[in-house]
Amino acid sequence: MKRIIRWHKDYVNKFMMKTSLDAQQLSWLSFAKGLIVGILLTLSTTSNAQVNYCDSITYDITPQQTLTVVGDAWSLSNMVDSIEWIWQACNSTMCYSANGTMVTFPNILTTDTVKVCYDVYIYMDSSTYVCTNCDSLVFDGNFWVLMSMSNPTGINELHYTLEGSGKMYDMLGRELLEVPEGVMYIRDNKKYIKIK
Description:
This protein is α+β, with helices and mostly antiparallel strands. It is 21% helix and 34% strand.
């Protein structure tokens, strides 16, 4: 270690004699060099945040019986050159297409379960971004709502009896016609294994 320190001191002294710098000037030169290297390293390692424009795209459904959807990209309006909306609404038999921010699908009935999809083309700085989304909609009697948000209408109460019916089932719930050997099965809400 002493050898390295001695070599460094000799090297610094030779450099100071060649450049006619005193110790304070050399210290400021070293500081400036470190500052410049630090700035360059900082600039070279920072990355630009990735922006997902599709997170800013949404739509609304107008409160009426005729299915009318309105695209909403207001948060992008000051950043992009233009936005193009392409819609598709499908019931069980047919699909209908329309273009524009606000579109109406008069052929969709309130009794239909509808799949509504949009493709949004965002044009910005000679680049094109495409955002796609699909939702299922139903009419709840007053409004068109997302299928996952509507009240369930087709579920009946399950009825079962606790009395022993003697039926056998495997562990996946499939009914068995005969007792399996070496495999667990269920009969009258109890688990059994028939050993060979």
